[in-house]
């Protein structure tokens, strides 16, 4: 009778081939018990000692590589930017709407005239920087949305097209926002 620990995988033609692990090594792995041989020892610790033990053990845990193992490319950067700009603008609109609703109860004056007067008192460089910072993500989100519309038509799924249109979106965004900021000064 064959050894029950022997693995005999088959090739597609039905011929036998050698096991991946040699039989003695396979038996060694299977011969080990999955349970501890000693009974568990319960140790009573104070709260402070328990927290210290937990903190010491956390220092020896492996750290997940998270995003550090990935090579960033234009597709992933633009996808991230599309999500970040969408969340940032929808969130800011909700926050401003909520602030506008509660402003009478808190004594804030968020009327258009007050906001325009406060913005008008800023230096020209600060106005231009604020305009650029507010308009750039909106325009990038819009232009990047056009890229996504081409993908909805099943066009441009190769890496070269994604790279070119990604850089084109960044360039077009920067040029158009720069033109808007300079022409509205």
Automatic annotation (TrEMBL):
Gene3D superfamilies reported in the protein's UniProt record: Fumarate reductase/succinate dehydrogenase, transmembrane subunit
Membrane topology reported for the UniProt record: Multi-pass membrane protein
Keywords: Heme, Iron, Membrane, Metal-binding, Transmembrane, Transmembrane helix
Cross-referenced PROSITE patterns: SDH_CYT_2
Annotated TM spans: 81-102, 165-182
Keyword presence, Metal-binding: yes
SUPFAM superfamilies per UniProt: Fumarate reductase respiratory complex transmembrane subunits
Subcellular locations according to the entry: Membrane
CDD domains, A to Z: SQR_TypeC_SdhC
Lineage top rank: taxon: Eukaryota
Keyword Oxidoreductase tagged: no
NCBIfam families: succ_dehyd_cytB
The protein's name in its UniProt record: Succinate dehydrogenase subunit C
Lineage: Eukaryota, Fungi, Dikarya, Ascomycota, Pezizomycotina
């Amino acid at each position: 009778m064959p050894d029950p620990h022997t693995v005999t995988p088959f090739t597609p033609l039905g011929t036998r081939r050698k096991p991946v692990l040699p039989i003695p090594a396979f038996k060694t792995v299977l011969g080990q018990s999955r349970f501890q041989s000693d009974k568990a020892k319960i140790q009573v610790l104070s709260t402070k000692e328990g927290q210290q033990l937990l903190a010491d053990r956390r220092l020896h845990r492996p750290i997940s590589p998270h995003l550090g193992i990935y090579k960033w490319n234009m597709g992933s950067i633009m996808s991230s930017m599309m999500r970040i700009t969408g969340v940032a603008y929808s969130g800011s609109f909700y926050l401003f709407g909520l602030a506008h609703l509660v402003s009478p109860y808190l004594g804030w004056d968020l009327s258009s005239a007050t906001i325009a007067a406060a913005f008008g008192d800023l230096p020209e460089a600060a106005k231009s920087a604020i305009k650029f910072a507010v308009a750039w993500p909106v325009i990038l989100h819009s232009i990047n949305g056009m890229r996504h519309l081409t993908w909805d038509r099943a066009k441009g799924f190769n890496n070269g097209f994604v790279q070119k249109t990604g850089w084109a979106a960044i360039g077009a965004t920067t040029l158009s926002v720069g033109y808007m900021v300079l022409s509205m000064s």
